[in-house]
Amino acid sequence: MQPSLTKRSIAEFFGTFWLVFGGCGSAVLAAAFPSLGIGFAGVALAFGLTVLTMAYAIGHISGCHLNPAVTLGLVAGKRFPAKEILPYWGAQVLGGAVAAWALYIIFTGQPTWTLGGFASNGYGAYSPGHYNLVACILAEVLLTFFFLIVILGSTDQRAAKGFAPLAIGLCLTLIHLVGIPVTNLSVNPARSTGPALVVAASGDFWAVQQLWLFWAAPLVGAVLAGLFYAAVLAEHEVPPVVEQPVTYAA
Questions:
Q1: What's the angle, vertex CA 91, arms to CA 84 and CA 222, rounded to 5?
Q2: Is 87 helix (H, G, I), strand (E, B) or coil?
Q3: What's the rounded Cα separation, in Å, for the pair 138 and 107?
Q4: N- to C-terminal Cα distance for the chain?
Q5: Half-sphere exposure of 27 (CA within 13 A, CB side)
Q6: For residue 56, what are the contacts with CB-CB under 8 A and spacing of at least 6?
């Protein structure tokens, strides 16, 4: 029996909290730590590990979307009911926002802290590599597209059972390795919203002003992936032939 929508939404809240706290926390607290910083590779691995661990922890409860783009992509791929999008989105965004504020409290416990970008996503002057708007849009759309293809493929009924969390977690690691220099990598509107709100609360509104891209591009990429998978890669079974009952003459 499937858990109630309330229980599934609560699971999504905690799962997304863990993703933002673990992934963004690694970027804010550990990426450039003196002499022992984990760098881009460590941050990428941290994001992958958050999804991997939560997929095993709550996958059987909510499906472990942790991402409004994933939820929408699963709707487009005919894997999730459209009527449940808003509760999932609300739980995901709230979980990401609470995680960002919890991380902020920890971060400001250091006596010499300066907020900086706080792991926010950006383009142009706020891109880590100063990539322009077109490059950032294309990167976010493409990387979200392939992330959803891996999610849909690894959770297909024909796929090997029990390995989906590994494939999804490693995929998220890989796309972070590619995308961090471009946009700090989002592919997840909830992940982008939390840090942007923290930066805005400090009086710097650039992350909120650029937040539209990190909603629009992942959602577009996810929908394209869902539609493509459903139309081309999903198993399309031929309807079974119903034999006509044999009638016997009296």
A1: 60
A2: helix
A3: 32
A4: 48
A5: 27
A6: 165
**Buried (b) or exposed (e) across 168-187, using 16+ Cβ within 10 A?**
bbbbbbbbbbebbebbbbbb
**Rounded CA gap, 165 and 66, in Å?**
13
Six token digits for residue 200: 């805005």
| Interatomic CA distance for residues 220 and 240, integer angstroms | 35
Residue with tokens 């937040």: 211
Contacts of 227 (CB under 8 A, 6+ apart): 76, 77
Angle at alpha carbon of residue 28, lines to 139 and 110, rounded to 5°? 165
Residue 230 per-residue DSSP state? I
User: How many CA atoms are closer than 13 Å to the CA of 174, on its beta-carbon side?
Assistant: 12
Residue 153 near residue 229, CB atoms below 8 Å: yes
Q: What is the pLDDT of residues 145-166, one digit of tens each?
A: 999 999 999 999 999 999 999 9
CA distance 52 to 38: 19
Rounded-to-integer distance, Cα 117 and Cα 8, Å:
32
Question: How far is 51 from 40, CA to CA, in rounded Å?
Answer: 17
pLDDT tens for residues 67-125?
A: 999 999 999 999 999 999 999 999 999 999 999 999 999 999 999 889 999 999 999 99
Domains, the chain, ordered by start: 5-107+118-232 (1.20.1080.10)
C-alpha to C-alpha distance for 20 and 40, rounded to whole angstroms: 16
The CA distance from 138 to 18, in Å, is 27
Q: Are 52 and 25 in contact (CB under 8 A)?
A: no
Q: What are the tokens at 206?
A: 């650039």
